[in-house]
Write a structure and sequence with these properties.
The protein has 502 residues and is mainly α. The chain has one domain (9-281, 317-501): Amino acid/polyamine transporter I. The chain has 20 helices and two strands. Strands 1-2 form a two-stranded antiparallel sheet. The longest helix has 39 residues, at 305-343. Keywords: Cell membrane, Membrane, Transmembrane, Transmembrane helix, Transport.
């Protein structure tokens, strides 16, 4: 098996941190909640993310040589059937996200090149913009699939590039906010007070603590993605043995980055003033905040109008560049990793023989191209303004929202069973006793269950009954489909064994 030899421990931590950490989630948290986001991030970190990171680190240590990811983790703890259904659900939950991300690539790309979002224009060179988005998205799908088929080294290269770009954005925003605080120390406490007392902008919340429960769901999703990067442990070469340690260190860094980012933005900026502009919305919030930071620095240090324009353009274009390469890095991992776990990790007999074909680079070449073809068909249908396909895709997106959280719940629920069935593997475990393992499992399961329950309850509460039903039907439908695929495999295997015995 060819593995990554040049991946250093530092780069491994960097990739994990920047795959999970979201600058967009941090900036949205600051803008919508201010310092009120702190307790919810604290609750999410201690009751969900850190226990989940400990559990995943245990699985990566025990199954570092396996290709199945979630499937291998659950197969021994529960059963191959439950493991397959969960892995199938996990893959389905990422599929709609893959389509959405490919169609969003052009937004940061145009901002990076031209300093503004050109996708909102009606036409480019006399041709409808939707056709340009379709063609360039299809080109991106083709290029991404071709590059990934060159080997998993490409996936790590994309992730490493996007990670360094994100570090650059963090340095720019961090240094920029620190400069504002140093140059205006008298405003720090005032800005902090404004951030603490500003009304909640998060949908469905008010200033009372319990009414802010919807933000708890948002905070949990801000810590998502650990399972995806952890499923690449078998491809991390010399760092496989250090992968669990890297996960724990990364988890701590991620929590610090969220808290530090919200604190810096709160101390350097007046949140109420930022909210007064009508140019900010969740779709352009990262660009808006970075542009505002550039303008505030220019005013604070008395820069000329030309220098202010240059700084503004530099900030928003680098933000767009970072988001663009972050999309590329994310797409490389979610295009490959869930499919790898499903095709290469599960029994080959489940799938048609052509699907399990592996090329010289040990990549599931045929499966990747079939996935690309299906993604392309969906992009074409959505770009041509197909009402039926557009409505179907929207419903499919709702159906996968809950489906994405269920694998987290199942992985956490499996952990006590894993400990009972593998007592010899617990000698070097970071979770020393069984009761601590049960506590970690219970904590993650409870947090995830609250998130799922509230996600289903919210549309019922607002009268959106179709959406609520789709949230429930989605996981059931995907689960039944996965179950039927596995049941067919079991029947074929039983029939083969009977024929072999005759």
């Amino acid at each position: 098996m060819k593995q990554i030899k040049s991946l250093s421990f530092f780069n491994l931590i960097l990739i994990i941190v920047m795959t999970v950490y979201s600058f967009s989630s941090m900036s949205s948290s600051f803008f919508m909640m201010g310092l009120k986001a702190f307790p919810w991030f604290l609750i999410s970190a201690f009751f969900y993310f850190i226990p989940y990171a400990l559990i995943v680190s245990e699985y990566t240590r025990s199954y570092s040589n396996r290709t199945g990811g979630i499937y291998d983790w659950l197969k021994d703890a529960f059963s191959p059937r439950i493991a397959f259904i969960t892995a199938f659900l996990w893959y389905c939950s990422y599929f709609t996200w893959i389509i959405s991300l490919f169609m969003k690539l052009l937004i940061p790309f145009t901002i990076m090149l031209f300093g503004q979002d050109l996708t909102s224009a009606e036409q480019w060179f006399g041709i409808d913009t939707s056709y340009w988005i379709m063609v360039l998205s299809l080109f991106a799908v083709f290029c991404m699939t071709w590059v990934i088929n060159r080997g998993h080294q490409a996936v790590f290269s994309f992730l490493k590039t996007s990670s360094y770009a994100m570090v650059g954005l963090l340095l720019i925003s961090g240094i920029g906010n620190l400069l504002l605080m140093v140059n205006n120390p008298q405003l720090i406490l005032q800005n902090m007070q404004q951030s603490l007392t500003a009304p909640s902008f998060f949908k469905g919340t008010s200033d009372s603590f319990l009414s802010q429960l919807p933000f708890f769901i948002f905070a949990i999703t801000a810590f998502g993605g650990l399972d995806t990067i952890a499923s690449l442990v078998d491809k991390s070469g010399e760092q496989r043995k250090k992968f669990p340690k890297a996960l724990i260190i990364s988890a701590v860094i991620i929590v610090v980055l969220y808290f530090g980012g919200i604190m810096l933005w709160s101390g350097a900026n007046n949140l109420n003033v930022l909210r007064e502009t009508d140019q900010f919305h969740l779709g352009n919030l990262m660009y808006g905040l970075m542009g505002s930071l550039a303008n505030n620095i220019s005013v604070s240090f008395g820069l000329s109008a030309a220098a202010q324009t240059f700084l503004y353009q530099a900030f928003i274009r680098y933000t767009a560049f970072t988001l663009f390469v972050a999309y590329i890095g994310l797409l490389s991992s979610i295009t490959y990793t869930p499919l790898k776990s499903l095709i290469q990790g599960t029994p080959k007999e489940i799938w048609p023989q052509f699907l399990t074909k592996i090329n010289q680079k040990e990549m599931p070449q045929t499966a990747l191209w079939i996935q690309a073809a299906v993604v392309s068909v969906c992009i074409i249908g959505l770009s041509l303004n197909s009402t039926i396909l557009g409505a179907l895709f929207n419903q499919l997106t709702y159906m996968t929202n809950v489906a994405r959280a269920i694998p987290y719940f199942v992985v956490a629920a499996s952990y006590p069973f894993y400990r009972i069935k593998n007592p010899l593997l617990l000698k070097h475990s970071l979770i020393a006793s069984h009761w601590q393992g049960y506590l970690c499992s219970l904590s993650v399961c409870t947090a995830t269950l609250i998130a799922i329950t509230f996600q289903v309850y919210q549309p019922f509460h607002t009268g959106e009954y179709v959406q609520a039903l789709l949230l429930i039907i989605g996981p059931i439908l995907f689960g039944l489909l996965g179950s039927s695929i596995y049941q067919r495999f079991e029947k074929k295997r039983t029939q083969f064994l009977l024929e072999d015995n005759l």
